[in-house]
Amino acid sequence: MARIQYLTQIDIDFGVVGLLAAECQRLGIQRPMIVTDLGVRAAGVLKPVEDAVAGLPVTVFDGTPSNPTEAAVRAAVAAYAAGQCDGLIAVGGGSSIDLAKGVAIAATHPGPLTTYATIEGGSLKITAAAAPLIAVPTTAGTGSEVARGAILIVDDGRKLGFHSWHLMPKAALLDPALTVGLPPMLTAATGMDAIAHCMETFMSAAVNPPADGIALDGLARGWAHIERATRDGSDRDARWAMMSASMQGAMAFQKGLGCVHSLSHSLGGLNPRLHHGTLNAVFLPAVIRFNAGADSVQRDRRLQRMAAAMGLQLGDASQADVAAEVVADLVANAVTTLNARLGLPTGLAAMGVDASMFDAIIDHAMKDHCHATNPRLASRADYHVMLTASL
């Protein structure tokens, strides 16, 4: 059985942040708390958001860390309670939006946050009591603004997923103007996160034809515009396209992700200083090659269809005549080359990771919620090969 569910109201265009007060009114939010980080505040990106809700009593929490933690959730919940808040506005990248989702749970549900983690069987414990959330992304990468999940580092050090339709933002205001000042390397890293979402969810074996169509279109947009957005942050068309690709990747990954993300979640939990999008970019080539052996990937010519969306040439032979392993090399090499052109790290070693960490990475990856939805189930030995190839 395939269940297909899309719920978020999305507005995307330059200037839509101005709709924020009206969205608060529509959702019955009278005392919002803005969840953001110091970088967003320092960049001046928070001001248009505050201006848009100037008529409301607003609490601002700007203590979001680069990888949101259970401790940060507790601090934000204390601010939420002190301000007698009744709803959330997340302003920032995936970290701020995910932290706000953690607050939506913890401010309205009893017990430690780990109780509600997906791998702990907690998804069904998250109820409609979750605080309403409006998402205003300032990066184009995670797509958390239209996703039902959050990734948080809990007190015991694990980087866990929290998933419930009750965590889906009630509204997403996608204003590309808020991304114009994003630095080139952050543009590249978050953009590769969006591309990884589109590619990995398209390779997933789950049946969701609308998600597949959304993922392929998002891949085409992201692939065509990421270098333009990185090279010239003021390119409005490129910024709009990357924000759409980010949103589309998350709309599509409702069908599941895979080994790229199980590895990224694991390593990001072990070393929270590593950027999630950069890790995805580095892991993509090895996972693409591994997935070439999946029956569903071969049967549905998924690698060939991705290559077409990326504008890659398969030579004179028809797509049906080209082996999946050959196309996997073509696509994987294209990703590696793009990473280099964008100035991203060439491998894990350049990020300070060495083989001594592999066992710990694999331990957590095999327990990650994305592990089981990869189109080809990975063993410990498979993960070791992928990590070695990514080094």
Automatic annotation (TrEMBL):
Protein origin, superkingdom: Bacteria
Domain Fe-containing alcohol dehydrogenase-like C-terminal: 187-389
Alcohol dehydrogenase iron-type/glycerol dehydrogenase GldA domain segment(s): 15-176
Transmembrane segments: none
Gene3D superfamilies noted in UniProt: 3.40.50.1970, Dehydroquinate synthase-like - alpha domain (1.20.1090.10)
InterPro entries: ADH_Fe/GldA, ADH_Fe_C, ADH_Fe_CS, Alcohol_dehydrogenase_Fe
UniProtKB keywords: NAD, Oxidoreductase
Cofactor: Fe cation
Family: Belongs to the iron-containing alcohol dehydrogenase family.
Protein name: Iron-containing alcohol dehydrogenase
Originating organism: Ideonella margarita
Organism ancestry: Bacteria, Pseudomonadati, Pseudomonadota, Betaproteobacteria, Burkholderiales
